[in-house]
Design goal:
This protein is mainly β. The strands form ten sheets. Strands 16, 17, 18, 19, 20 and 21 form a six-stranded antiparallel β-sheet that branches. Strand 18 (about 280-290) and strand 19 (about 290-295) form a beta hairpin. The two termini are about 55 Å apart. The relative contact order is 0.05.
Length: about 750
C-alpha cells in the first residue's frame, strides 16, 4: 500500500466532510512496520492507520505498546479516518508519594532475563491500605539499579496505570531491605539462660538467649540441629528465632570412605598449657597418593578413646570441613601390630593397692580376670541374723512416696577345725526362693574378695527349718499403695501386711495369689503378717469339696474391701427362691445365708455390691467343715446411657453414683455400642481413686433403632399444591454467573477477588 502525505486535508479538520475541528486523542501503538503502523484508540473502539512521516520525534524510539497522542484526519482518496501529528507521551504515574510494600513473587531467575516471544517475565508486589492487601505486577524494567529482588524483600515503588488496558502495575521499584536469610547450625553449649550455636556457614560460634528459642526448652540439648536468623544487637551478632531441625540436617564435614594408615608424630598433651588454643593439637604422618602428608587430630577423633603414644601405627579416615576445607584425621584406631613396635610394658592384673591410671587397655576373653575366690569345701552353720532384700515401692502414686529400704546382710555361725566363726551373707546369694530364718540350719560355701580379703557366704542352701516359728497359709485379698491384706486359710478374716515384709518382687503379686507368712504383734497388740512369701505355682491348697448345684442369690453384705465401714471381713449371700435347681429345693436351702471371701469369687478384681444378684456354688472348708459360697459370678444387666468417643456410661448405681463409667476397649468382640443397648459387665474398683468402672462389657441385645420423623401433613399438602407452571409462584432468575480464578499465574489487575453471581 502506498501513501501520499499530500492527499491529507489541509489544516486540522478531523473528517472528510470537514464538519468537525481536529481533536487530540490518545492511543497505543498496536502494529509498527517500516513506513506505517496502526494505533488502538483508548477512548473509543477504533483502530487507525498512521504514516511514519506523521510521527514527531525519533522513529527509532517508537515501539509497539507505546502511548501516543494524535489528531484524527481522513484519507482524501478513501475517506477513511487516519491518525496524524503523532506525539509519544509518557505514562502517568500515580500517586506522587512512594508506596511501601513487599515482594510476594520474584521474577523467575531460571529464565535468565529471556522469555517467549511476546511475553515479558513478571513478578508481583503487595501493599496494604485500610486493612486490605493489594497486589501489583512488575517487570525487570520497573526495577531501579538493575537489582535482583527476592520473595520477602521490602521495597518502595510508584503505581502506574496503563491507559489502554486499565491495568495498574508497580514502577520505579527501589529495594528498602533484603529479607533476612535463615542460617543453620548445631547447639554446642547450653548454660542457665543462654547457649551457643556452631554455625554451618562459617567456622564461628554465635550467642542465643533462651527467650529466642521457639519450642520446648526442656527438650533442647547440646548436639541438636537448629536454624536461626542473625541480628545485630549492641554491635554484636546474635541468633534469633531459633527453631529445631530434624537430626542430621546440618552437616559440617565429609568423611572419606577409604581408610588410610599412618604414624603418630605428636600426641595430645594430657595437661593443656595456658597458651594452647589449638583445638587439634595432635599430628599424624601418612603417605597419601605417593605424597607424605601431615594431618591434624583432636580428642574426639580417636575411635576407641585409647591413649595414643608417639610412634603408634594407626588407621583413620580423612574428614574435610565444608566451611574452610580443612582436612584432619578422624576415627583413629590403633593397629594390632602397634604393641610389637613400641617398647612399653604390659600388665594383666588389678591395680587397686596403688593409685595408678590404666591406659591403652586391651580387652581379654571373659573370665580371664577374677576378683573373687570361692572355696571348694562346703560348710554347715546356723542362721543367727536374717538378711533382708532392698525394697522399692513402685506402686506409689507419687514419686516422693516411693521410699527405698536398703538391703541388710545376715549372719551365719559355724565351726571350722573346732573354732567357732561367723560369716555374713546376702539375699542374692541364696539358692532357691525360700529365705532362711533365725535358727535354720544351712549349708554354704565361702567367697573371699582378693583385694580386701573380706569373706561372705554364697550358694546357701537350707537343710532344716527351725520349729520355733509357725508358717501360715493365706491368699492375697487386697493390694493398696504400700500395704495389703491376706485372707486366712479359713477364709474368715484378713491380716494386714506391709510391702517391706514381702520376700520377692512386688510387681508379680496379684489378687488371689497363695502366700506363706508368719504372724507377729506390733504396737497396740495389732497382729500383722511378716516374711510374706509367694508360693510357687502348683502349691495351692484346696478349699474342700465343691457341690455341683448352681444356685441363685443376692448379696446382702459385700466384702470389707468394698465397704471399709463394716467390721466383718466376709461377704454374705442370701439364697433366693427364683431359679432354684431341683437339688437345692430338695435339700431345703431356700433363704439361707452363705459367707464368701476373695477366693470364693470367680473374678478376684470384681466388686460385688450390696443387693446384686449372683450365681454361686457351695463348697466345704476342709479345716472347719463350714459351707461357703464359691465360684460367685454376678448377674448384671443394664442399659447403655450414652457413648462418647473412647468411653461411655451405663445406667447402673454403684455407691453414690447413678452411672457407671466404661472404656470402649473393655467392650468384648470389638462391637460398637449404641445408646439403649443391654449389656452384661463386671465392676472393678480403682484402689487409688476409690472409683468403680465397668470391664468385660458384653452386649446382650441391641436397643431400639431411631426412627426418622415424617414430614408434617401441612408441609406435604403445600408441596403437592405447588406446580412448576404456576406463574404466581416465586422464581429465581440468574442475572450473572459467578466468576472464579482463571488458573493464570500472578495477578493481572489491581485486586483480583472472586466475583459473586447475582440472583434476581
Amino acid at each position: 500500500m502506498s501513501f501520499d502525505p499530500g492527499m491529507l486535508h489541509n489544516g486540522h479538520t478531523a473528517f472528510a466532510n470537514g464538519t468537525a475541528v481536529g481533536i487530540r486523542e490518545t492511543g497505543v501503538v498496536e502494529k509498527l512496520l517500516t513506513s506505517y503502523g496502526f494505533i488502538q484508540c483508548s477512548e473509543r473502539q477504533a483502530r487507525l492507520f498512521f504514516h511514519c512521516s506523521q510521527y514527531n520525534g525519533n522513529l527509532q524510539e517508537l515501539k509497539i505498546g507505546d502511548d501516543v497522542e494524535f489528531e484524527v484526519s481522513s484519507d482524501r482518496r478513501t475517506g477513511k479516518p487516519i491518525a496524524v501529528k503523532l506525539l509519544k507521551i509518557k505514562p502517568e504515574v500515580l500517586p506522587e508519594e512512594r508506596i511501601s510494600g513487599q515482594v510476594v513473587s520474584a521474577i523467575p531467575t531460571h529464565l535468565d532475563g529471556k522469555s517467549a516471544p511476546g511475553q515479558v517475565p513478571t513478578g508481583s508486589v503487595c501493599y496494604e491500605r485500610n486493612g486490605e492487601v493489594f497486589y501489583l505486577t512488575y517487570t525487570p524494567d520497573d526495577i531501579e539499579g538493575n537489582m535482583h529482588l527476592d520473595t520477602g524483600d521490602k521495597v518502595s515503588f510508584y503505581m502506574e496505570t496503563n491507559k489502554h488496558t486499565g491495568a495498574v502495575s508497580a514502577h520505579n521499584i527501589v529495594l528498602v531491605k533484603k529479607k533476612q536469610m535463615r542460617c543453620q547450625g548445631v547447639v554446642c553449649a547450653t548454660k542457665e539462660a543462654f547457649g551457643f550455636i556452631e554455625r554451618a556457614d562459617v567456622v564461628k560460634e554465635i550467642f542465643f538467649h533462651y527467650s529466642e528459642f521457639k519450642g520446648d526448652l526442656e527438650a533442647l540439648q547440646a548436639g541438636d540441629d537448629v536454624e536461626f536468623t542473625i541480628k545485630e544487637r549492641n554491635g554484636k551478632e546474635v541468633a534469633t528465632d531459633v527453631r529445631l531441625l530434624a537430626q542430621g540436617t546440618v552437616i559440617f564435614e565429609d568423611i572419606s570412605i577409604e581408610q588410610f594408615e599412618g604414624t603418630v608424630i605428636k600426641v595430645i598433651p594430657k595437661v593443656p598449657t595456658k597458651n594452647q588454643n589449638d583445638p587439634l593439637p595432635g599430628r599424624i604422618c601418612a603417605r597419601i597418593n605417593y605424597t607424605d602428608k601431615e594431618l591434624l587430630f583432636g580428642e574426639k577423633d580417636t575411635k576407641s578413646k585409647v591413649t595414643l603414644l608417639e610412634g603408634d601405627h594407626v588407621q583413620f579416615n580423612i574428614s574435610t570441613d565444608r566451611r574452610d576445607k580443612l582436612e584432619r584425621a578422624t576415627n583413629i584406631d590403633i593397629l594390632p601390630d602397634t604393641f610389637h613396635f613400641t617398647k612399653e610394658s604390659r600388665e594383666m592384673d588389678m591395680l587397686s593397692a596403688q593409685r595408678n591410671h590404666a591406659v591403652r587397655i586391651k580387652k581379654l576373653p571373659k573370665g580371664t580376670v577374677s576378683f573373687h575366690t570361692q572355696s571348694e569345701q562346703r560348710f554347715v552353720g546356723v542362721v543367727e541374723k536374717e538378711a533382708t532384700a532392698a525394697i522399692t515401692n513402685n506402686k506409689s502414686a507419687s514419686p516422693s512416696k516411693a521410699k527405698e529400704k536398703e538391703a541388710e546382710e545376715g549372719v551365719i555361725s559355724y565351726e571350722d577345725c573346732g573354732v567357732k566363726l561367723t560369716v555374713s551373707y546376702h539375699v542374692k546369694d541364696l539358692e532357691g526362693a525360700a529365705q532362711p530364718q533365725a535358727g535354720d540350719k544351712v549349708e554354704f560355701s565361702i567367697n573371699e574378695v582378693k583385694r580386701t580379703g573380706q569373706q561372705s557366704a554364697v550358694t546357701i542352701k537350707i537343710l532344716n527349718r527351725t520349729v520355733n516359728t509357725k508358717r501360715l497359709l493365706g491368699y492375697i485379698a487386697t493390694l493398696k499403695d504400700n500395704f495389703g491384706f491376706i485372707e486366712t486359710a479359713n477364709h474368715d478374716q484378713e491380716i494386714f501386711f506391709h510391702y517391706s515384709e514381702l520376700c520377692g518382687d512386688m510387681e508379680n503379686l496379684e489378687l488371689g495369689d497363695t502366700v506363706e507368712y508368719t504372724l507377729s504383734k506390733g504396737k497396740g497388740n495389732k497382729v500383722s503378717a511378716e516374711k510374706v512369701m509367694k508360693m510357687a505355682a502348683g502349691s495351692v491348697y484346696a478349699n474342700g469339696d465343691v457341690g455341683e448345684a448352681v444356685m441363685l442369690g443376692k448379696v446382702v453384705r459385700p466384702l470389707r474391701s468394698v465397704d471399709p465401714s463394716q467390721t466383718e471381713y466376709q461377704g454374705l449371700i442370701e439364697h433366693s427362691e427364683e431359679g432354684e435347681s431341683p437339688l437345692a429345693v430338695e435339700e431345703g436351702m431356700k433363704g439361707q445365708n452363705y459367707s464368701f471371701g476373695i477366693m470364693g469369687m470367680t473374678n478376684k478384681a470384681d466388686c460385688l455390691q450390696k443387693g446384686e444378684l449372683v450365681k454361686f456354688q457351695l463348697c466345704t472348708v476342709a479345716q472347719t467343715g463350714q459351707k461357703m459360697a464359691c465360684n460367685v459370678v454376678p448377674q448384671r444387666k443394664a442399659l447403655v446411657e450414652c457413648v462418647k468417643d473412647q468411653f461411655g456410661f451405663i445406667t447402673y448405681e454403684v455407691g453414690e453414683s447413678k452411672k457407671l463409667f466404661f472404656h470402649v476397649k473393655e467392650v468384648q468382640d470389638g462391637l460398637e455400642l449404641q445408646t439403649g443397648d443391654e449389656v452384661e459387665f463386671s465392676v472393678i474398683l480403682n484402689q487409688r481413686t476409690g472409683k468403680c468402672s465397668a470391664c468385660n462389657v458384653r452386649r446382650v441385645s441391641e436397643g431400639p433403632k431411631p426412627v426418622a420423623t415424617p414430614r408434617p401433613d401441612r408441609l406435604v399438602n403445600r408441596l403437592k399444591s405447588i406446580t412448576l407452571d404456576d406463574s404466581s409462584a416465586p422464581r429465581l432468575v440468574i442475572v450473572r454467573q459467578p466468576r472464579g480464578p482463571d488458573n493464570s499465574k500472578g495477578f493481572n489487575v489491581e485486586r483480583k477477588t472472586r466475583q459473586p453471581g447475582v440472583i434476581d
